[in-house]
Design goal:
By secondary structure, the chain is of the alpha/beta class. The protein is 47% helix and 16% strand. The strands form two sheets. Strands 3-2-1-4-5-6-7-8 form an eight-stranded mixed sheet, sandwiched between helices. Helix 3 runs parallel beside helix 4 and helix 6 packs across helix 10.
Length: 367
């Protein structure tokens, strides 16, 4: 896998495929990149952006020059392409995917006799947004990237691919496909279902006038943000990792039933310990690498209700070349601290914005 003259193919060019392609183009500007997507508008845009060298209108032998071939479509679609890919794939080509469920794909490549050239992959990045238009060339930076080679995978191909992924700025982690699927069920798949259920809970409880929707700002929208993810993608994930998801949901249901029983007993010690243990574990989660959920950088600023105050804050940040991603007034302050919510693009911008405003005697709360 000569990274000086690398030729890469993408079948599927959405958020993840597009971001990997953009990153390759940034780090390996001379790379030759082939790409196919059912949405030809995305391919045309990628060509216009200078990301894709060779746009493809179908999956065929045109991909044969590729030394790495990324499958970035839904799992069932990726599997459906395997027979065609096998007919033209070179012996030295590495085949990989980016799905968040590895078992079904691994089983399929074994059935097709393609295991030696296949290394399952899953960059632990994501967003509630989807599509090439939301991709970027820094999504992989400091993100864990799961690699799940099988027992018969060519060791040299696997090692070179791990080095290649590390060269894109990600942090490769190798583990068996089955272990990967249990881990992602716990830290991604079940949380998405829980977020969706929280939204359904409020939706069902909402009044005819939509009062709960009106009041469910700030914290509620943050903790349920991932419920806005692609329904098609989550249909595929739940179908392909159902056993792990069901087992963990059963555990959660038992825990919630226990919480309900202790509340009925008015057991304050249990409730206190319940929240204390959750808080301690959450606070121990490292914050120095990108996880499956896109991190949000926000600060909250106490400001007086006077004309021009919001403009003054924005001007102070602009004067110090700090770009604001979004800004707004928080009316529901039950969860949030501060009244002016400012979203920044990265951690450094968040830190500098807080520093600038505190120097001007604003009370600032950082997320």
């Amino acid at each position: 896998m000569n990274t000086e003259s690398i030729t890469v193919g993408f079948i599927g060019l959405g958020l993840i495929g597009g971001s990997i392609a953009r990153t390759i183009r940034r780090i390996h500007p001379d790379a030759v990149i082939y790409a196919y997507d059912k949405d030809q508008a995305s391919i045309e845009q990628a060509v216009e952006d200078g990301v894709v060298s060779h746009p493809m209108t179908e999956v065929n032998q045109g991909f044969s020059p590729c030394s790495i071939l990324f499958l970035c479509a839904p799992v069932s679609v990726n599997i459906s392409f395997l027979e065609t890919i096998k007919s033209f794939m070179d012996d030295q080509c590495l085949l990989t995917d980016v799905g968040s469920v590895k078992g079904p794909m691994q089983d399929a490549v074994v059935r097709m006799g393609m295991e030696e050239n296949f290394v399952g992959g899953h960059p632990m990045v994501g967003s509630e947004r989807s599509g090439y238009e939301h991709s970027n060339d820094h999504l992989l930076e400091n993100a864990y990237y799961f690699l799940t080679p099988g027992p018969r995978t060519n060791f040299m191909l696997s090692a070179r691919f791990s080095s290649f992924i590390q060269g894109l700025g990600a942090l490769p982690v190798t583990l068996p496909p089955q272990e990967h699927d249990y881990i992602t069920a716990a830290i991604s798949h079940v949380p998405h279902i829980v977020a969706a259920e929280l939204v359904h809970l409020v939706r069902r409880a909402d009044t005819r006038g939509g009062m709960l929707k009106q009041l469910a700002a700030g914290g509620f929208k943050d903790i349920t943000r991932i419920a806005s993810s692609s329904p098609l993608m989550w249909e595929q994930i739940c179908q392909n990792n159902s056993s792990n998801i069901r087992a963990l949901l059963d555990d959660m249901i038992r825990d919630l039933q226990e919480v309900s029983r202790r509340l009925d007993e008015e057991n304050g010690d249990y409730v206190n310990d319940y929240f204390r243990q959750a808080g301690e574990y959450r606070d121990s989660v490292p914050d120095n690498a990108t996880g499956l959920f896109e991190k949000i950088y926000k600060i909250y600023v106490d400001i007086p209700d006077e004309p021009g105050t919001l403009a003054t804050v924005a001007s102070q940040l602009a004067f110090h070349s700090i770009s604001i991603k979004n800004i707004g007034i928080v009316h529901n302050r039950e969860f949030e601290e501060g009244v002016l919510e400012i979203m920044l693009y990265d951690g450094e911008s968040s830190r500098r914005a807080a520093e600038v405003l505190r120097e001007r005697n604003y009370v600032v709360h950082q997320r």
